[in-house]
Amino acid sequence: MANLDEALDALTAQAPGSCQLREDRGQGAYVDARRAIEICNACRYCEGFCAVFPAMTLRREFRDSDLDYLANLCHNCRGCFFSCQYAPPHEFGINVPKVFAELRTESYAKYAWPQPLAGLFRRNGTILSLATILAVTLILILTMALSDPAAFWGANDRSGSFYAVIPWEIMVAVAGASFGFAILALIISGFRFWRETGGGSFAQAGPLGKAAGDVLTLRNLGGGGEGCNDIDETYSSWRRIFHHFLFYGFALCFAATCVATVYDHFLGLIAPYAFLSWPVQLGFWGGIGMMIGTVGLAWVKIAADPGPAAPSVVGADFALLMLLFLTAFTGLVLLGLRATPAMGILLAVHLGTVLTLFVFAPYSKMVHGLYRSLALLRNAREQRRTSDAAAAP
Amino acid sequence: MTDFSRVYDVLIIGGGNAALCAAITARRMGASVLILESAPRPFRGGNSRHVRNIRAMHDAPAVTLSDAYHEEEYWEDLLRVTGGETDERLARMTIRGTQDALPFMLDCGIRFQPSLSGTLSLSRTNAFFLGGGKSLVNALYQTAQRLGIAIAYDSEVTAMHLDDGRIGRVEATCQGFPETISAKAVVAASGGFQANIEWLKEGWGDIAENFIIRGTPYAKGKVLRNLLDQGVAKIGDPTQCHAVAIDGRAPKFDGGIVTRLDSVPFSIVVNRDGQRFYDEGEDVWPKRYAIWGRLVAQQPGQIAYSIFDSRSVPLFMPSVFPAISADSIGELAEKLGLDAVALEATVSDYNAAVQPGDFDSQRLDGCATKGLDPSKTNWARTIDTPPYIGYPLRPGITFTYLGVKVDEHAQVCLESGRRVDNLFAAGEIMAGSVLGKGYLAGFGMAIGTVFGRLAGQNAARHALAAD
Predict the structure, then answer these.
(1) pLDDT digits (tens, 9 = 90+) for B17-27
(2) How close does chain B come to A44, measured CA to CA in Å?
(3) CB pair distance less than 8 Å for B131 and A49
(4) Between B353 and A166, whose confidence is greater?
(5) How do beta strands B112-113 and B212-213 pair?
(6) B139-148: burial string, b at 16+ Cβ within 10 Å, e else
(7) Which residues of chain B fall short of a pLDDT of 50?
(8) Structural domains in chain B, sorted by start
(9) Which phi and psi angles does B234 have, rounded to 5°?
């Protein structure tokens, strides 16, 4: 593990733009966030809501990287906004969910690799929407131009029909390259975040189970037991439920892809698969879950009191929800109509959305999962250290 | 839109915890209820917006409260802080009433959290509200709305007509428009008068101009003054108020908890002339913070400065304002606007008087000065390790004690000894009936909740019996 640390250190040290990770007192969102947190730290009424406030109380001074950590630890449950005696119109005007949402976007850009692509986080909603349209159009045109019209318009779902439209080699090469790049970019970004926010060495085993539990259950959207202020002052669990639909739906779809890969490479079973096969069942229910999740989360965003929301991040949020919805929706439509002449078009459209999702995983709100998980791991370590220290004689 | 033309069974004046407890209780008994809250919606709730816990008696662990806290111990705690200036009958009634307060609060959607970091000493006696007072206020208003209670914000009562021992018409300004309201019974739960600087000046003189009001700017005491002017019995010393020393840079109103400053015991405190004036280490801070407001108020310009060195920094909760720091005492004096020579002399006299000892911030360590007037009797340690740090202090007023006198039914008494037939009171406006002096953390909420429910119950009973 120590070797991994060194290797990643070497890699990130060479990463263009890493010189920007200075520990200065920052500007913009950092100034707002620091001011808010210093007030929170003198108040502490919100300690019971989530992990952010107890983590705050361990500090007196907040460096930019501490703020990056706390902002990414924040799950945007809004409990602290609606219970804040200093929320606008109070002259202190404290709005932690809003400044943290703004700060998260800044931190996504700050830790992005390679740095020249950090600019994609500016106007991310517009960029992601255009990229989706571009990818879908490009794949559609290329497929129509290059594939055999008989296969493209041929109404059949026999084994291998997908690869008659888009050759297997091309599909694997494009998917492999884009997915591989996304994974590399995410690893480097994640490592830089971990290092800059003082996560400590990967070599020491941490309370991974605790952190994984926090990630998988979204415990911090529990608001201390009552749920979140999803819509207004009342508590509910809508966001948590819909996020579970989306997350586990996505996981099922991902599992479907993995199983299909095994079928194809090792069992020699060529897609498309029967409706009752594992890949299709996983993908089908996963797709339904993703659609419920994305529509639900969009509804929560639209219905919610705009007070604690940051207008500058709304575009990126909706663009990603839309892309995830389209990925699931086009996949399900493809499943339903794969025996019709529409199959060729639907396949191209579906793969266009999937490609965008993968390529933009490091440059869209998808990265929140990475930084949130790392922040939770760091928090679990920090809490254990604190309780160990308290238990020591 | 609120209907002001109908006759409500119960009219509640005020919009904090006591008012809402009264409203909810009355409504649950079947009464029609109207709440007049003088603040606009974002600032609703009076000082309840700033509270964080309630002190509750319990014979077994309850909610977040550990062990037991029996009536006798609660009473003794109260007796100690008030120096006996408390009405034993009403106080014990309040104490016993807090047993039912927690279930009532849970039922209203109020939630609790473990005691906050730095307040472990209260985890047995005080139940902390999840999210603090504003969450509590939100939950109470939601409950009120669900029950069909009419709520008018930005509605200030200007006059109550007390004729022949009962309240007749009530005049109010509702969102700028004059309204006359009729109700069969009225609950006055409109708080104290601490935000009324002119009134504070009657007791304190012009120095009250320099007081900072820690809570709501809407506690003007209009209803209180109106009632006292019409022969309602008053209780409590008009010059008494709960005053603590807070950061001098706090806003004039509504700064709440974040302006508090706990550095005094680990510092020396000097006035505008650079002179010390009281033993900073007399006792542990939770037992002394409430006298320092008055001490600072008695100094010229109503300002003082807590001075210490870098070694004291980790020993207390910081206020929200940045520490003023310098590499020498002279430079610090300059930054604080004090006379450098005077401050240097005070610090060096103090340093020379500090006796050796084992410094321990966690207990009364006996580290004292010798031959200094006034002496510092605990935590006296030389100020010699730069950077040197200073915080300005001003008197911060939490609440006033002067109020209306109520009986054990929360019914308001007249100077003649009679009761006002249909007027009940709860919360800060009558807290002086229970607590004449001093303060016990979480006891204000205890009075508000217990008397709020009682006032609501008796007001509803009175109104419904009138039918």
Answers:
(1) 999 999 999 99
(2) 7
(3) yes
(4) B353
(5) unpaired
(6) bbbbbbeeee
(7) none
(8) 7-237+401-466 (3.50.50.60), 243-396 (3.90.700.10)
(9) -100, 155
Which stretch of A134-143, A202-211, B27-36, B377-386 has the lowest confidence by average pLDDT?
Answer: A202-211
- Is pLDDT of A22 > 50? no
pLDDT attached to residue B29:
98
> How much is the ipTM here?
0.92
Residue ranges covered by each domain of chain A: 2-112, 115-381
pLDDT at A15 exceeding the cut of 80: no
Q: Which of B43, B118, B132 sits opposite A83 (nearest CB)?
A: B132
Cα B322 to Cα A60, A95, B132, B258, B386, distances in angstroms: 11, 20, 24, 12, 17
Residues of B whose CB is below 8 A from A48: 113-114, 128, 130-131
Distance from CA of A349 to the nearest CA of B (A): 47
Does B46 contact A at CB distance below 8 Å? no
**Residue in A closest to B45 by C-alpha:** A85
- At A14 the pLDDT is 42
pLDDT at position A5? 54
Contact A39 B320 (CB under 8 A): yes
Compare all CA atoms of chain B with the CA of A232 and give the residue at the minimum distance: B138
pLDDT at site A4: 52
Residue of A38, A85, A225 with shortest CB distance to B132: A85
């419920």: which residue's tokens?
A292
**A45 contacts in B (CB within 8 Å)?**
52, 116, 129, 131-133, 257
Q: What number of residues does chain A have?
A: 393
Q: How many A-B residue pairs are in contact by the CB < 8 A criterion?
A: 85
Q: Which of A85, A91, A305 to mutate to test the interface with B (most CBs of B within 10 A)?
A: A85
Give A198's pLDDT tier (boundaries 50, 70, 90): confident
Query: b/e per residue, A314-346, with b = 16+ CB within 10 A?
Result: ebbbbbbbbbbbbbbbbbbebbeebeeebbbbb
Per-residue model confidence (pLDDT) at position B160:
96
From chain A, the residues in CB contact with B212 under 8 A are none
For residues B187 and B126, what is the distance between their CA atoms, to the nearest angstrom?
Answer: 27
